[in-house]
């Protein structure tokens, strides 16, 4: 299992997909940098925006609702499909390893790779925020960053198995994954009532650094409209995420026992 | 070690992959012969546990193969598909699969290098597989199949695309493994390839087993089919006229310049017995005579017709 994970991590870093996703992971630090450059001009320079105060928004929009789902959709759906489409699965399933370990090892490799990309991105964002706030403020900023990193890690543990399952289930798993994350989760997040309990993002929001109400201007209207209400406890959110992780992992590791892949023609 | 198919069937929806196969394969080299689409790959994938039988069982040493990863410790598999993690070098490819097989790093390295040497790939072992020729890729696939010294080998079209030297190396290696008592199953649609490796064959077409056994035993099975004999002689027209007097002659065909004829007879022994007298009586000189039926290709043609 340990060797399989290492092997798949190496495979991951030989893939062009990883490099494209690494480039995308630079978007949040780039946006943060842009905000830092532009902030004297926001609000007419009178109430210059603190990046520290703005971080929950960056985390919410750029990490939880953009980068995390995007990276996990592409990496998760590729867990089985890469080996099937490259027809290398035959080398793996004819070795004396249980089939579930192949999927589990590849998911673990996907989580490690995605975490490296996201944490590197988060680290760059943190550096820019520190630069803005002053390095003497590092402890206050660091708490938020670690909280965000923890939530991202939890998200990886749920989304990667979920999209691995999509990869085994759907003919066009990337489309299905993008629909789930960008249409379903984003739409349902702003619905009133309990519908949002059917999204993974809802539980990640609960554990994330809280979005702060912004009281003035157009930004206030937009942010306050989409800001999720915290209706469940942290413990419940963690429990639900762990249950999702267990269910999705079981479903995805079971695919190779149920579904047969015709890797080549007779 | 023995491989067994017991009423083995596999269908994909309404398409039959293989249909009610029953056979046992023992040590030595056995050839799976059949045209493209005959069901050879499906059969190998059933026997290596990659596919679940729709009906019946694929069995190795009395144990079912499906969902039994332990049996894979004793199996080596060379897939037909030209598939690799192509960024790896030849050595890294074989070594990685040995590590996945459960060998330690040093064991995996030693076994990989040994297998690479046996397949004649030592000169290219540190190049990336992406830069290999088709023949080199075939050989490195063969190397990963034999590196862990398995008791049973399944080689799906292993000689495809190999150059003559590579073919000879591979054929000698396969024969050697068979002589060592390993159970080696080789699939091919090119009959003379298999003929060079073994006399023991299974003929497959449309997912059905047409015949199993020694090539000569199989030939005996098809005695009811006419034997073809091609004769090149000094007077084709006269010989044709004489041969047409006999009831066992089913057809006679000429080549374009009428320098030779091909006869189909339902009584080969009788034909060979009377031919010398016939040509002497008619003063016909035979320049050459051969029967394509002595070639495995012809046997195969008869059986799949």
Write a compact overview of the structure shown.
The complex is a heterodimer of chains A (266) and B (305). With 266 residues, chain A is an all-alpha fold.
Shape of chain B: elongated
The number of helical runs of chain A is 11
Q: Provide the structure class of chain A.
A: mainly alpha
Order of helices and strands of chain B: EEEHEEEHHHEHEHEEHEHEEHEH
Number of helices of chain B: 10
Give the distance, in angstroms, between the N- and C-terminal Cα atoms of chain B. Answer: 34 Å
Number of strands of chain B: 14
Q: Helices, strands, pairings?
A:
The complex is a heterodimer of chains A (266) and B (305).
Chain A: H1 2-13, H2 16-24, H3 27-38, H4 51-85, H5 89-93, H6 99-133, H7 138-169, H8 173-189, H9 200-207, H10 217-226, H11 234-258
Chain B: E1 3-12, E2 15-25, E3 28-33, H1 40-47, E4 55-60, E5 63-64, E6 75-78, H2 90-101, H3 105-118, H4 134-146, E7 152-156, H5 164-179, E8 183-188, H6 191-197, E9 200-205, E10 208-214, H7 215-221, E11 227-233, H8 236-243, E12 249-254, E13 260-265, H9 268-281, E14 286-290, H10 296-304
Parallel strand pairs in B: 3-8, 3-9, 6-7, 7-8
Antiparallel strand pairs in B: 1-2, 1-4, 4-5, 9-10, 11-13, 11-14, 12-13
Helix pairs in contact in B: 2-3, 2-4, 3-4
Describe this structure in words.
The complex is a heterodimer of chains A (266) and B (305). The radius of gyration of chain A is 20 Å and the shape is globular. The longest helix of chain A has 35 residues, at 51-85. Chain A is mainly alpha-helical. Chain A has one domain (2-258). In chain A, helix 9 (200-207) runs antiparallel to helix 11. Helix content of chain A is 75%, strand content 0%. The model of chain A has no long low-confidence stretch (mean pLDDT 81). With 305 residues, chain B is of the alpha/beta class. Chain B folds into two domains: 3-215, P-loop containing nucleotide triphosphate hydrolases (Rossmann fold), CATH 3.40.50; 227-304, Alpha-Beta Plaits. In chain B, 35% of the residues lie in helices and 29% in strands. Chain B is built from ten helices and 14 strands. Chain B has helices spanning 40-47, 90-101, 105-118, 134-146, 164-179, 191-197, 215-221, 236-243, 268-281, 296-304, and strands at 3-12, 15-25, 28-33, 55-60, 63-64, 75-78, 152-156, 183-188, 200-205, 208-214, 227-233, 249-254, 260-265, 286-290. Chain B has a six-stranded mixed beta sheet with strand order 6-7-8-3-9-10, sandwiched between helices. In chain B, strand 9 and strand 10 form a beta hairpin. In chain B, helix 2 crosses helix 3, helix 2 (90-101) runs parallel beside helix 4 and helix 3 (105-118) crosses helix 4. Chain B is elongated and about 75 Å long. The chains are: A mainly alpha (266), B alpha/beta (305). Chains A and B meet through helix 1 and helix 5 of A and helix 1 and helix 2 of B.
């Amino acid at each position: 299992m340990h060797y399989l994970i290492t092997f798949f991590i190496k495979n991951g870093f030989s893939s062009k997909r990883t490099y494209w996703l690494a480039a995308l992971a630079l978007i949040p630090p780039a946006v943060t940098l842009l905000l830092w450059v532009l902030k004297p001009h926001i609000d007419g320079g009178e109430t210059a925006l603190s990046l520290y105060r703005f971080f929950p928004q960056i985390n919410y929009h750029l990490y939880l609702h953009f980068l995390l789902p995007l990276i996990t959709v592409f990496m998760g759906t590729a867990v089985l499909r890469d080996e099937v489409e490259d027809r290398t699965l035959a080398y793996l399933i004819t070795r004396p390893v249980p089939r579930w370990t192949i999927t589990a090892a590849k998911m673990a490799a996907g989580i490690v790779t995605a975490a490296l990309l996201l944490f590197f991105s988060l680290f760059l964002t943190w550096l820019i925020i520190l630069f803005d706030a002053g390095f003497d403020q590092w402890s206050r900023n660091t708490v938020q960053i670690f909280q965000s990193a923890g939530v991202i890690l939890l998200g990886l543990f749920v989304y990667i198995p979920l999209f691995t399952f999509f990869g085994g289930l759907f003919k066009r798993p990337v489309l299905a994954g993008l629909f789930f994350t960008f249409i379903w989760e984003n739409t349902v997040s702003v619905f009133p009532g309990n519908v949002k309990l059917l999204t993974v993002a809802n539980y990640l929001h609960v554990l994330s650094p809280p979005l702060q109400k912004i009281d003035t201007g157009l930004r206030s209207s937009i942010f306050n409209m989409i800001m999720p209400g915290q209706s469940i406890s942290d413990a419940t959110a963690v429990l639900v995420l762990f249950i999702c992780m267990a269910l999705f992992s079981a479903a995805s590791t079971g695919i190779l026992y149920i579904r047969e892949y015709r890797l080549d023609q007779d | 070690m023995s491989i067994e198919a017991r009423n083995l069937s596999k269908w994909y929806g309404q398409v039959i992959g293989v249909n009610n196969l029953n056979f046992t394969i023992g040590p030595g080299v056995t050839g799976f012969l059949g045209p493209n689409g005959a069901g050879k790959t499906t059969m190998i994938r059933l026997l290596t546990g990659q596919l679940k039988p729709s009906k019946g069982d694929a069995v190795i040493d009395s144990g079912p193969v499906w969902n039994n990863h332990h049996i894979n410790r004793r199996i080596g598999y060379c897939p037909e598909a030209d598939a690799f993690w192509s960024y790896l070098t030849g050595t890294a490819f074989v070594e990685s699969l040995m590590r996945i097989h459960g060998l330690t790093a040093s064991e995996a390295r030693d076994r990989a290098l040994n297998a690479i040497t046996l397949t004649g790939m030592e000169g290219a072992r540190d190049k990336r597989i992406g830069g290999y020729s088709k023949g080199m890729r075939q050989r490195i696939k063969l190397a990963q199949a034999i590196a862990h010294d398995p008791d049973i080998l399944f080689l799906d079209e292993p000689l495809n695309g190999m150059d003559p030297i590579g073919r000879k190396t591979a054929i000698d290696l396969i024969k050697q493994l068979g002589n060592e008592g390993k159970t080696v199953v080789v699939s091919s649609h090119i009959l003379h390839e298999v003929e060079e490796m073994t006399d023991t064959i299974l003929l497959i077409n449309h997912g059905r087993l047409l015949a199993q056994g020694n090539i000569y035993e199989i030939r005996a099975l098809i005695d009811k089919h006419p034997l073809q004999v091609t004769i090149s002689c000094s007077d084709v027209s006269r010989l044709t006229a004489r041969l047409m007097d006999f009831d066992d002659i089913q057809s006679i065909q000429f080549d374009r310049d009428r320098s030779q004829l091909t006869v189909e007879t339902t009584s080969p022994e009788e034909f060979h017995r009377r031919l010398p007298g016939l040509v002497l009586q008619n003063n016909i000189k035979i320049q050459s005579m051969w029967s394509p039926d002595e070639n495995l290709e012809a046997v195969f043609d008869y059986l799949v017709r």
